[in-house]
Amino acid sequence: MQLSDILKGVHLSGTQQAPALVLLHSSMSSARQWRPLCASLASHFRLINIDLFGYGDAPQASGCKGFSLSHETDRIQLILEELAVTEFSLLGHSYGGAVALKMAYDHSSRVNSLQLFEPVAFHLLKKGCPARLEVETLASNMDSLSKEQAAASFVDYWNGEGFFARCPSSMQQLFCSQVAKVGLDFQALINEPNGLEQYATLPMPTQLLSGRQTRQSAKNVAQSLLSVQPSWQYHEVEGGHMAPISHAQLVNSALIGFLQSPE
What is the torsional sign of CA 24, 225, 185, 183? Predict the structure, then answer.
């Protein structure tokens, strides 16, 4: 990656001398989803709100062979080096939560706290179990559909049937333009080599959040993580997998509360 590209899609705000907080969004989203939260935290944190590969203003992932979560975490590490950030807290939703998990493991001595809203770390689900088969079927079906059909399939899976059709045409077009990156996201999520034995060693204070009306696949990932990290704080909030957007006030309140007292 060229030096000039390192900070593309990196949105900085908050207080320069305050503790650093890295925020990672879900698939088919961008750093924009965390703007209300960043506004609430600006006086207490140095906020590093990152568009992941292929979303928002970030570079595309087209040059990354054998795309994996490591491509995301390596880029985040370059960003932090460029910003001279040595310690930080992590916050991630969905795909961004899975990236945050891997980042926390790879840099555990530098991560002060970790917050995850339904990390879709599908590699943690047992091969052949119904939840994993459901996700693998969703991913494989997207490959055989038109861009519009694939986008609708993915968006409706997480938001409910008919959600895509009710979106404005401009948003539908944006979703369609991101279908290829979603395919890479699935590839990275399913093939990630880290397992529960790795994440069982995470030492930092952690909060795991779920929506009460979410998909079983997301619930099963959360349950798997809690089985090896029973001391993690765990809370359910109203809403589904996209509650950080649809129920932002509820979710942000829980996130802020933990940041104020993570122990």
Answer: negative
- Structural domain including 37 reads 3-125+194-260
Q: What letter represents residue 140's amino acid?
A: S
CA-to-CA separations, 114 to 10, 119, 206, in angstroms, rounded: 20, 12, 5
Assess if residue 173 is contained within a domain: no
142 part of a folded domain: no
pLDDT recorded at residue 1? 52
Residue 193 CA to residue 29 CA, distance in Å, equals: 25
pTM of the model: 0.96
Report yes or no on 133 lying in a domain: no
Return averaged pLDDT per consecutive 10 residues of the chain, 263 residues in all: 76 96 98 98 97 96 85 97 97 98 98 98 96 95 93 97 97 96 96 97 98 97 98 96 97 96 75
Say what the pLDDT of residue 50 is: 98
Phi-psi region of 114 (alpha: psi -120 to 50; beta: other; left: phi over 0): beta
- Give the integer Cα–Cα distance in Å for 167 and 159: 11
* Residues 124, 208 contacting (CB under 8 angstroms): no
Q: List CB contacts of 125: < 8 A, sequence separation 6 or more.
A: 131, 132, 135, 217, 220, 221, 224
Q: Encode burial over 141-165: b for 16+ CB neighbours within 10 A, e otherwise.
A: ebeeeeeeebbbbbbebbbeeeebe
